[in-house]
Amino acid sequence: MHSFISIIPIFAVILLGFLGKKAGFLNKSFIKPANGVVFYVAIPALLFLSISKANFNSTFQIIPILATISALILVWIAAFIAGKILKIPNGSLGTFLQASTHGNIAYFAFPVAFYTLGNNGLILTGIIGSFLIIAQNILSISSLSFFNRLTEKQTSGLKPLLSIIKNPIIISSIAALFFSYEQWHIPIIIERTLKILSGMALPVALLVIGSSLSLKELSHPKMVVTASLGKLILLPAFGIAILKLFAVTNHLSIAVVSILLAAPSATVTNTMALEMKGDEKLAAAAVTITIFLSIFTYTIWL
Fold first, then answer.
1. Highest-confidence range of 93-97, 229-233, 272-276, 285-289, by mean pLDDT?
2. What radius of gyration, in Å, describes the C-alpha atoms of the chain?
């Protein structure tokens, strides 16, 4: 019951974003620049400020990092087998695999971690999430590139691959880890500036998520349901099982891994499907459905 009460306000803000778009005051002229500010400035500022001030030895945990990446690979394999059983065409298979494994870390896992676990939860989520973001993107780009080439849709994975290297969330997290390891202190003026910027990161991120939801094109029901089961149920279950296998009993570590792996399909799934000639309708449907279902699945995992 406590987890449900913690989750509801997060989804209330997402709903506000959705209703705001319907009412017309959260339109494209606001959402696009707001999205840019959140992704390139506010969330990196929040993560850098939180992680850089943390104790490196207590926050950098290798087993949870390996558990999340291992679970990701295992579910990718399971999704591939499911895709073959469902006879999903190669033109849609890459998108199906991405929707089953690529979670919305920045705009979903980070807010859920902060509002349910506090700042310590956000710090650990930021560190593990940075490695998961890299793994997710490499796996997604590889899947889309390979299966689209099988359908003679020759596309280049170079642009999405470069986006991993230039990802501001990854850059800020790695820089913050370095500060934490060296025990460097941020100058007070910079620290206060980052604090102001980070204050808008999570609320605006949730509004942006809500405004991106669309109920118009919910196609491919069988594929969407299967992808949702993989993303919201199988992925966190595998992650928790691997932690248990390595005798990890720390509640915070288990909760963080659950939050990261149970995040709904990322909105970038739709962007990458468009960029790399995947199945855009499948991507859009998977993103919307997993967001709606995650209110219930997060309650289970937390």
1. 229-233
2. 18
Tens-place pLDDT, residues 212-230: 777 766 677 888 999 999 9
Angstrom distance (rounded) from CA 112 to CA 252: 13
**From CA 93, how far away is CA 79, in angstroms rounded?**
9
CA dihedral 10, 15, 18, 23 (to 10 degrees): -130
All structural domains of the chain with their residue ranges: 28-301
Q: How far is CA 25 from CA 11, 29, 30, 161, in A?
A: 19, 9, 8, 35
What is the topology classification, in CATH, of domain 28-301? Na+/H+ antiporter like fold (1.20.1530)
> What's the rounded mean pLDDT across residues 45-50?
87
> Look-up: residue for tokens 């491919």?
220
Give the C-alpha separation, 195 to 172, whole Å.
14
Please answer whether residues 7 and 201 qualify as being in contact, where contact means their C-beta atoms are separated by less than 8 angstroms. no
pTM of the model: 0.84
- Contact between residue 275 and residue 286 where contact means Cβ atoms under 8 Å apart: no
Distance (Å, rounded) from C-alpha 91 to C-alpha 283? 12
Q: How far is CA 129 from CA 25, 92, 102, 214, 298, in A?
A: 32, 27, 12, 26, 17
| 281 membership: H or E segment, kind and range | helix 280-301
Fill in the amino acid letter for 75: V
pLDDT in tens, 230-275: 999 999 999 999 999 998 889 999 999 999 999 999 877 766 666 6
Residue 45: which of 105, 165, 126 has the closest Cα? 126
Tokens at 31, concatenated: 């959402």
Sequence-distant (≥ 6) Cβ neighbours of residue 55 within 8 angstroms = 180
